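User: Okay, second chain of the day. Same drill as before: sequence in, structure tokens out.
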Amino acid sequence: MQHDFQQQILSILSEVKREKIDGLIRFLEVSDFFTAPASTKYHLAYEGGLAELSRDVYIVFNEKCMAYSLEFDKDSITLCGLLHDICKTNFYRKGIKNVKEDGKRIEKDVWIVEGSFPFGHGEKSAYLLQKYIKLSDEEALQSGGIWVLPSPKRCTGKWIRLEKNIRYSWR
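Assistant: Same drill. Structure tokens below.
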């Protein structure tokens, strides 16, 4: 299954017409992006969870843009949807934790946060992406996890927020 997500994501990214996208794709291939969990214990906390979540967010984000007839560039939707959590690459490691289950102490395999980069979650994603490709202001906000879309009333300069749980709306 994990291999399927990797193939799907790389296929989608190969269609992005952005200068230096090849370097970003190479980074994903050599990092743990396709094997990392999406979290330590809350959602998709298993090997390959990050790739699965990223693919699913891309699908939902694309559907939301179409449903609201938002004129958002295809490359922007791809980059912001697929790579909104790129900050989680090389961020987790496997470990063992002594936990209590059914009144007994047992050792359990867990995911441990190992990142020490002092940026917040969203800012780190935008920062990492911009090491490889140039982002527009809107893309930096989106990939940074703010989950905003430009208002259909662009002339007002206001932003609208997508529902908080966009990541889970496909389930």
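The helical segments are 2-13, 21-30, 49-67, 74-82, 121-130, 137-143.

User: Thanks, on to the next one.
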